Amino acid sequence: MQLFNCPFCGPRDETEFHFGGEAGNLRPDGDVPAERWADYLYMRHNPKGPVREVWVHGNCGEFFVMERDSVSHTVSGSTTLGGEHA
Amino acid sequence: MRNLAEKWTVVPDWAEATIEAPGLKARAVIGLNQYLVSGNLDAWSAVSGLPAKGIGALGEARGDAYAVQVARDRLLVVSATASGIEAGWHADGFAVTPVNAGHHLFEVEGPAQMELVARATTLDPAAPSASAALSFAGANAVVYRHGGKLRIHVDRALATYLWTWMQTAAANIAA
Amino acid sequence: MVASRLSSGGSAIDRSHPISFSFDGRTVQGFEGDTIASALLAADVAVVGRSFKYHRPRGIWGAGVEEPNALVDVSGSVRATPNTRATTEPAREGLAARSVNATPDAAADRNAFIDRFSRFIPAAFYYKTFMWPDWHLFEPRIRAMAGLGAVDASWTSPGAADQVNRHCDVLVVGAGPAGLAAARHAAQAGKKVMLVDDQINPGGSLQHRVGEIDGRPAAEWVAATVAELKAGGHLVLTSTTAFGIYDHHLVGLNQRHHDGRPDTLWRVRPRHIVLATGAIERPLPFANNDLPGIMSADAALSYLRRHAVLVGRRIIVATNNDSAYEVAWALAAAGAEVTLVDIRKDGQPAAPAGVKLLSGRSVVAARGKMRVEGVLLDDGTTLGADCVAISGGWTPSVHLFCQGRGRLAWHEARAAFLPGDPVEGIAVAGALAGAVSLSDVFDSAAKAAGADQAAPHSSGFEATGGIQPAWPMPGQKGRVWIDYQNDVTAKDVELAARENFISVEHLKRYTTLGMATDQGKTSNLAGLALMAGITGRSVPEVGTTTYRPPFTPVPLASFAGLTGGELMSPVRRLPLENIHRSMGATFQEYGGWLRPAHYGAKGVAAEQAIQDEALRARRSVALFDGSTLGKIEVIGPQAAEFVDFIYYNTMSTLKPGRCRYGFMLSENGVVFDDGILVRLDEHRFIVSCSSSHVASVHARLEEWRQDRFGRDAVYIHNATSDWATLTVSGPRAKTLVTALDLGVDLDDAALPHMAIAEGRFEGEVVRVARVSFTGDRSYEISIRADRSEALWTRMQQAGKALDAVTIGLEALMILRAEKGYIVIGKDTDGTTMPHDLGVDGPRQKRRNEFVGRRSLFTEVATQGRRQQLVGLAMADGEQPLPTGAHGIVREGGKVRSQGFVTSSYFSPALGRAIALALIEDGSTRHGETIELQHLGMLRRATIAAPCAFDPSGDRLNA
Questions:
Q1: Within 13 Å and on the Cβ side, how many CA atoms surround A86?
Q2: CA C923, CA C904: separation in Å to the nearest integer?
Q3: Nearest by Cα to C811 from C620, C574, C606, C605
Q4: DSSP one-letter code for C720
Q5: Which residues of chain A does C250 touch, with a Cβ-Cβ cutoff of 8 Å?
Q6: Please, is C712 exposed, middle or buried when counting C-beta atoms within 10 Å of its C-beta (0-12, 13-18, 19+)?
Q7: Does the distance separating the beta carbons of C667 and A3 come in below 8 Å?
Q8: A27 close contact with C: CB closer than 8 A
Q9: How far apart, in Å, are the Cα atoms of B140 and each of B103, B125, B154, C293?
Q10: 3-state SS class at A39
């Protein structure tokens, strides 16, 4: 069981968290081309190694960006969507 | 059609129900006022007279009225008497929603209460956590201490589940 | 008699407490402190099982968890458990042990003949044989012969296993000399220590190897160290296996109790881990090295010292390293005739007293039928023996180190994989780290604990790390066993190489070497070293397979813990559940809640009761518990903009005190939830989402709040469980609600349909919302959940005079279906967009952004052939259509689906069957008759509007 850092609550077991997708996949507003919208809906980079992901700590509801390594599972940092660090 | 009520333990009479095991006693606490407040907690603090920062996980709450931190900008306020603070939006920048009935409160006392905590949550009791919201027996709960006893707030709809869980865990602790 | 119990000695047994148990039906005597294996050896039981494939007789190999042969099913006075290791299972009064894979028993197995056909069933035979004409013909027989032990059908659960979470500064795994010393160092440095060992008693190898520590016998030092740790408040657990290291150094422990309780699972998060897991002795490779009586040299010493069992009279000790020398010396001192055969020509220790040493010689074959009778050496000599104790070297138990992401380094001179580069947070000590002598062990323990105090002064039987590798060789003569439990020989490894399964992972799976319950603890290294020899690679080039938890088998009950029965997947309870029970409700589980399906008198069939409720609901007034509806408050300065973005429909125009029905879409345009939005005031809304979607809607609202609008714009409070919602519906609803005297102006001008007002009931605030899911005039009255009983009781009383009926969810489902009101996920699927449900206004008219907007204008969303919500009308007297029946189109000789039935009931109000369906282009095909197919039956129905009853909606205000 992994240990993640909620930027507010601190280290908690992974079962308190929920994956929220790749970070940086910003929503394009307006009448964007279909390809751009499809990218937003479905395309992900899914790199091997360092990743930036959106997670939510289910108990306090905080959404944040977690930097971790998808291979070694090392967690390097957690930042709220508003910018506050763990 | 099979009656699935047969599968599930009957909801106890919370006024009477207790769990007793060596070093452990649990019961429900009925009748306290509770509300959620989010937003500009300094502004709320000025109105309520309570500190803007709430108790964290397994932290010590005192007195008849206190606030428990459940998120970065949200408190669960518990008090013996009604707060007099209106529900809804306050122009000072905070929002209030009563949860008097929505949060069910359990209290556990006795020297073995930390044994219960060790079974219910993976949180390190020695490491402070700013928010008292955590997974307790798999359910989202708010857990802190008051007067030497453990207080656990859980969604009313899951109260019977948590009660059955605590009965089973208490039996394991006693063994 | 070959093996025997000595009349004195045995540090683990208590001769004042004799016990007896049975093995394969015969009585065996022993003492408290014996394992099943030690008592069997003392009774000179040579054959304890039959090998997996060839049913060869097998004896006890070792004294610990690495045991490959002596598996027994236990029952009788202990809880029935299959496939336990006789070497670690305590002997108990009244225990009944049965050998595995043998009929009728190990001594007289009737399948022993199979061994004569061994060359037809080498490794992986099942990939090539027993295929034609149909492998299904052979599979049941092969399956019946596979497996080892048997499950006891009368087994009952001992109860929910305890699971405990724990944090500490240092977790030390292994309470042998290295672990005890490391734990002591850490405790003295002020750390909070936890020490675990999988054996019943602490001490590890010190329980049977001589040693003097700080001037006193090793056993005394062990006891004193354990006492010191316990006195310091540190936790010392025995019979506790650290079975795995998981992410971020979570360590799983399984603690056995010896009093009938289920095992306890511990989840430990230590700051630092010290692994002192020791090493496991491996066999030597020679022909017929699996005969009963051939065993681990270290085990022979353990049985002698711990259990006072002398394993033979004429014993050959064969070795390639120093550790067997103490064994030979001790066996000779106990009265056996001992010959020590060392493959090394020089560099080894002097012959121990009373032992005949043959240097530079090796065993090439063992002879015997049901037990070993002698050996053949490489120089052609034969020696008689009734026991052969062998040591092919020691394999450090690196499992946990590797699970913690440690890498191994091959040490040619040691013929061992040792932990390589250090892993942060994990230190290694003792034999695991390559220490050989006791003083090496203590030095490594001090280093692992980061201690600067002196290690205890120690002395033991002199041993160096000198070893001459004795791997199985390509082309070796005879049947040389590598994996005892899965019956894998050197020839099987050669076969794998011939078939090009040369990677170590393929070798494992092709031959099944290392895949048995012992996970190759005594065999993996020999197998991969042989593969290296065959393929001209070095041992590290072949490498090891991936180490995975658990180290030894862990009962599933330990992982389950309390999660079982009604604690498995808890259902949510209504505030008024006990009242519904007392009213005779039949409950079902809906969307995670336990709710009344119907009430109904005793003896009345469910279907009839439901029809009755639905009929009466439209005649007078129905009372219904709708407390599960979501009530998520959205409060703040930008609440109106927020709900405009969240919903498909424009919501900011909603006036305070009014309600509006709307859809929430996902970003792909699919309808995710439907429900009512209530506006209480300028800055406060209540999202009344479906009961089963409350958590997910709450999460979505928080996400948009934090990821788009900003935390200060709006606040989300889930108040669902705070309110009970009791619904009054039907032509007499207004009369009933008036009688409740809620202080609300119920005049339709003051409270029209889709409006909300606040009142009081016995001093409590109530919200009265005119919202309808039945299509009749309907009032949803919400009150604090813990004050709802009085309101419900008053409703029931007021209803008596009005012929009110209390209805359950099943009747409600019929009522809403009569009106064409959808249930998300039942009348919609993962492709259904709002315009498929006939709600196209917002898509056409809205200009501002909302969730899913762009998806509504893609090619897929705007082209034809979309499945749209329709009603299906049938002739009177027809049975309801099966839900899920497909509307079919016959095109050019083929049949394809054009949609399916989503909801189907008999409507008591209409006196005929009704249905809702998703049908291709259905909204433009009203009046068309279509065919529907289900399980080979054909039906016909006519496409119609979804609303079958009261299409004008007059009853909402009736």
A1: 22
A2: 19
A3: C606
A4: G
A5: 1, 3
A6: middle
A7: no
A8: yes
A9: 11, 17, 7, 58
A10: helix
What is the interface size between A and C, counted as CB pairs within 8 Å? 54
Question: Which residues in C lie closer than 8 A to residue B161 (C-beta atoms)?
Answer: 566-567, 570-571
pTM for the model stands at 0.94
Find the residue in A nearest to B75 (Cα): A60
Buried residues in C155-182 as b, exposed as e (16+ CB within 10 A): eeeebbbbbbbbbbbbbbbbbbbbbbbb
CB C111 within 8 A of CB C50: yes
Closest Cα to residue B54, out of B33, B40, B74?
B74
Cβ atoms of C636 and C715 within 8 Å: the answer is: yes
Locate the chain B residue with the closest alpha carbon to C569. Answer: B161
C-alpha to C-alpha distance for C172 and C182, rounded to whole angstroms:
7
Contacts of C353 (CB under 8 A, 6+ apart): C329, C332, C333
**How far is C321 from C329, CA to CA, in rounded Å?**
14
Encoding tokens for residue A76? Answer: 């390097």
Report the C-alpha gap between B13 and B28 in whole angstroms.
10
Q: Which residues, listed in sequence order, are joined to residue C676 by a DSSP beta bridge?
A: C661, C688
How far is residue C768's CA from residue C747's CA, in Å, rounded to a whole number? Answer: 13
Q: Which residues of A touch C854 (CB under 8 A)?
A: 28, 31-32, 37
Cβ atoms C52, C59 nearer than 8 A? no
Residue C550: cis peptide before it, omega within 30 degrees of 0: yes
Closest alpha carbon to C299 in C472, C88, C471, C483: C88
Q: Which pLDDT value is given to residue A85?
A: 54
- C-alpha gyration radius of chain B: 17
DSSP string of C879-894? PPPPTTPEEEEEETTE
Residue C863 pLDDT: 87
Cα–Cα distance between C254 and C241 in angstroms, integer? 5
- C271 inside 8 A of chain A by CB: no
Q: Is C858 near chain A, with CB under 8 Å?
A: yes
Hey, how many other C-beta atoms are within 10 angstroms of the C-beta on B146? 19
Interface A-B, measured as beta-carbon pairs within 8 A, has a size of: 49
Strand partners, C671: C665
Closest Cα of chain B to C247: distance in Å?
Answer: 14
Measured between beta carbons, the chain C residues lying within 8 angstroms of A73 are: 247-248
Contact check, Cβ <8 Å, B89/C571: no
Q: What is the chain A residue with the closest CA to B72?
A: A8
Average pLDDT per 10 consecutive residues for chain C, totaling 958 residues: 94 97 97 98 96 94 97 93 95 96 86 86 84 88 81 84 97 97 96 97 95 90 97 98 97 94 96 97 98 98 98 98 96 97 92 94 96 96 97 97 97 95 95 90 90 75 83 95 97 97 97 96 97 97 96 95 93 98 96 95 88 97 97 98 98 98 98 97 96 95 95 97 98 98 97 98 97 98 97 98 98 98 97 97 97 97 92 93 97 95 97 97 97 95 98 95
Nearest residue of chain C to residue A72 (CA atoms) = C405
**ipTM of this predicted complex?**
0.97
Q: Do residue B101 and residue C577 have CB atoms under 8 angstroms apart? A: no
Confirm or reject contact between A31 and chain C (CB < 8 A).
yes
Q: Give the residue carrying structure tokens 């839900």.
A: C883
Bridge partners, C913 (sequence order): C906
Token digits of residue B65 = 């009225």
Contacts of C805 (CB under 8 A, 6+ apart): C612, C613, C616, C617, C620, C621, C622, C623
* Residue from C108, C115, C88 nearest C24 by CA: C108
Rounded-to-integer distance, Cα C193 and Cα C177, Å: 16
B131, A59: Cβ pair inside 8 Å? yes
Of B1, B39, B157, the CB nearest to C572: B157
What sign has the CA pseudo-torsion C414, C416, C421, C425? negative
Q: What is the DSSP letter of C329?
A: H
Crossing angle (nearest 10°) for helices B159-174 and B113-120 = 120
